[in-house]
Amino acid sequence: MLQAETRTLAPGQVAHGIYKRRRWERLVLLFADFAASNLAFFLAYHLRYTFEVGGDVPGESYVAYALYVPLQLLFALLSLAGYQLRGSYRTSRFALSSETMAVIGTSAVAAMLVFGAVSMVHYSASSRLAFIYAWLLAIVLGAAGRLIVWLIRAKAYRSGVGVERVIVVGNNRLARMVMQLLVHQPTLGCRVLGFVDETPERDFGRFRALGTLDHLPALTRELAVDRVIVALPAARHEEILQVLDRCRAEGVSLSLVPDLFELRLSHVTMGTIGGIPLLDLNEAGIGGGNLIVKRVLDVLSSVILAVVLSPLIAIIAIAIKLESPGPVFFWQTRLGKDARPFLCLKFRSMREGAELEQAQLEALNEAQGPIFKIRADPRLTRVGRYLRRTSLDELPQLWNVLRGEMSLVGPRPPIPAEVERYEDWHRRRLEVVPGITGLWQVSGRSELSFDEMVMLDLYYIENWSLVLDLQLLMRTIPTVLAARGAF
Is residue 382 part of a domain? Predict the structure, then answer.
């Protein structure tokens, strides 16, 4: 549960502090860009004229560095202007991938403009190779500078420095998804204190129901809120305007998540007919050719993992057999894509016959929703407790991946009894092939509520990409090694 400690500040005091911090962040980023552009031109000159990279420089073609200094400054200023036009300095939260593309495009335009100006006035410092080197170096140094700024900021956010304290307005799927994304992307620099709505029913997992919309002004003062994020449907526009007025009165920043966020989760593309904008709703990401790519990745990776981890698998099997009577493997009926049943293979982590004892332990269930979890399950063996904590009991599911019943990445396959207790929106996680690891497994594991797990599964389904699969596989390694949140 997120703790929302009281820390009263005067209206406007918080907003001023956040504005001051953002101003310094923008100045640091601007300085990094200016330094990278100048250094790129300086190094480009020496690559061409000092080290003669690209061919010998005849004496009559040699140009002193002093003649390149005005061009260097012009290149740096044009680069800064390009970043400003792209909006790089208008927000303190930038996506590293998109900003890298911005560096490539902006530096290219700046280099072409400077070279064009030099050619028009027949300026003596006009080596084409020098300009090409300047552009390439500007890409490398500019991206490196922004990466350093991003890493410093991310480290500061993880330490709680400069983090915005956020309240979300709404308790619908849109609002819950926003809260999930903010919490599981700490580099965004937001701490979700909770949510308010017209009639908040109960807490959503770790997110506190703080009260109604009428409580918002008092909450912004008592909890020193920096930002309010409104995630209400467009039909409630009057309430949205009320929240806007209250935030203005309290001097709190406000962000509005439009209804189109819901459409974005289903892959929206923009089109036009006769100048009229249209939003095209495409099929979910895991389908068609994408499904083939994902399957090829699963087969190749599972074969490699099975070979590499075969000594570990053998050691685990021997340890299970030596500790307690019963089979090494445990077969359990699970539901896969479209609720089709299959036999899921795991290492046995409990004493034999443990499934028959579950009814007697229902009162000890610590999980919310239709799943069953006990932190100190008495049925676990000593080896099994270690396997559960590290998730090594799931290694045999590589066999299920090879058979096509599971994928390396995807929602966890539920047992039939769980699905019988699903709400309608929960069933969407059965639309794809289940996986060994997934988004919620690397974002809290068993510490999450069931609704939070499903929300993260739905986000994965609707935003799937090959890059996302690779990221989740890489994040699984430190998660397993840390052994946090699993029981």
Answer: yes
The pLDDT tens digits of the residues spanning 152-203 come to 888 888 888 888 899 999 988 888 888 988 887 777 888 999 999 987 668 8
Task: Examine the domain organization and report whether 179 and 225 are in the same domain.
Answer: yes
SS3 398: helix
- 418: in domain: yes
Task: Please tell me the predicted confidence (pLDDT) of residue 11.
Answer: 44
Q: Name which of 443, 457, 423 is nearest 337 in CA terms.
A: 457
Q: Which residues pair with 345 in a beta bridge?
A: 331
**407 vs 397: CA distance, rounded Å:** 9
Cα–Cα distance list, 117 to 70, 92, 103, 135, 477 (Å): 12, 33, 21, 16, 52
Report yes or no on 1 lying in a domain: no
Q: Do 236 and 365 lie in a common domain? A: no
In this structure, the answer to whether residues 205 and 349 fall within a common structural domain is no
Per DSSP, the three-state class of 228 is: strand
Measured CA to CA in angstroms, residue 480 lies from 44, 65, 394 at distances of 45, 54, 11
Q: In the structure encoding, which two tokens stand for residue 83, read together?
A: 């970043």
pLDDT band at 277 (very low <50, low <70, confident <90, very high): low
Q: What is the pLDDT of residue 195?
A: 95
Q: Which residue's entry shows tokens 């526009």?
A: 237
pTM for the whole structure: 0.66
Domain count, the chain: 3
Tell me, yes or no, whether 35 and 79 share the same domain: yes
Contact by Cβ (8 Å): 111, 135 = yes
Residues 354 and 227 in one domain: no
Phi, psi of 334 (to 5 degrees): -125, 165
Q: How far apart are CA 226 and CA 15, in angstroms?
A: 6
Q: Of the segments 216-230, 235-249, 368-382, which one has the largest average pLDDT value?
A: 216-230
pLDDT higher at 269 or 125: 125
For the chain, helix (H) and strand (E) counts, in that order, are 15, 11
Q: Are residues 314 and 416 in the same domain?
A: yes
Q: pLDDT of 35-61, one tens digit each?
A: 999 999 999 999 999 999 999 988 888
**Rounded distance between C-alpha atoms, residue 320 and residue 347, angstroms:** 8
Whether residues 396 and 310 share a domain: the answer is yes
Say if strands 329-335 and 341-347 run parallel, antiparallel, or are unpaired.
antiparallel
Residue 340, beta-bridge partner list:
none
- Does 6 reside within a domain? no
Q: 29 is in which domain, residue-wise?
A: 13-158
**Nearest Cα to Cα of residue 233 among 180, 284, 175:** 175
User: Of 139, 158, 177, which one is at a domain's C-terminal end?
Assistant: 158
- The Cα–Cα gap between 48 and 119 comes to 18
- For residue 309, the model assigns a pLDDT of 94
Least confident of 114-118, 231-235, 297-301: 231-235
Report the CATH number that the domain containing residue 175 is assigned in CATH. Answer: 3.40.50.720
329, 393: one domain: yes
